[in-house]
């Protein structure tokens, strides 16, 4: 299990470093490891860009894989259905966006309200 507060770009890289360490002990392929990292980068950058600038990343083992949870107390995602239908095109940053981050994971759930956002993502090695 790892946790990391995210308030800066440097914190995001600390989270990536810790998740890599966690994944190393599990039978993930190099490709799947990259998928998890790129997905986390997108979601964590959104905390800095849209989610009030501060959040937390937690990553833990689940049956046959890992789960990461990224939470913030920002204003929430206004058009979450459109985004998840793939009808929203992101236009800045890494350019993969939330929908791309979802495609890289096996499961991705978004809980969002005007009090904040929580994104729960799972990747399995089996
Ligand atoms: N944590 C968040 N809190 C509030 N709004 C968010 C959050 N994450 C995403 N959003 C909203 O969802 C939209 C889509 O996010 P997405 O990451 O797909 O694209 P983007 O961040 O605008 O562009 P890019 O990721 O390419 O820089 C954002 O523009 C923003 O309005
Ligand atoms: Mg984004």
TrEMBL record:
Gene3D superfamilies (alphabetical): Histidine kinase-like ATPase, C-terminal domain (3.30.565.10)
GO molecular function: ATP binding
Record domain Histidine kinase/HSP90-like ATPase: where: 40-120
Alphabetized UniProt keyword annotations: ATP-binding, Kinase, Nucleotide-binding, Serine/threonine-protein kinase, Transferase
A Pfam short name: HATPase_c
Protein's name in the database: ATP-binding protein
């Amino acid at each position: 299990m790892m946790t990391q507060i995210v308030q800066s770009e440097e914190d995001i890289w600390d989270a990536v470093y810790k998740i890599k360490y966690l994944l190393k002990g599990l039978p993930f392929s190099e490709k799947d490891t990259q998928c998890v990292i790129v997905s986390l980068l997108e979601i964590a950058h959104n905390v800095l860009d849209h989610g009030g600038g501060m959040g937390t990343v937690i990553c833990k083992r689940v049956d046959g894989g890992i789960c990461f949870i990224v939470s913030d107390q920002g204003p929430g995602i206004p058009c979450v259905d459109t985004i998840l239908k793939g009808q929203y095109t992101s236009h800045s940053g890494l350019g993969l966006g939330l929908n791309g981050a979802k495609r890289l994971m096996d499961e991705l759930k978004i809980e969002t309200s005007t009090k904040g956002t929580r994104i729960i993502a799972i990747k399995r090695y089996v």
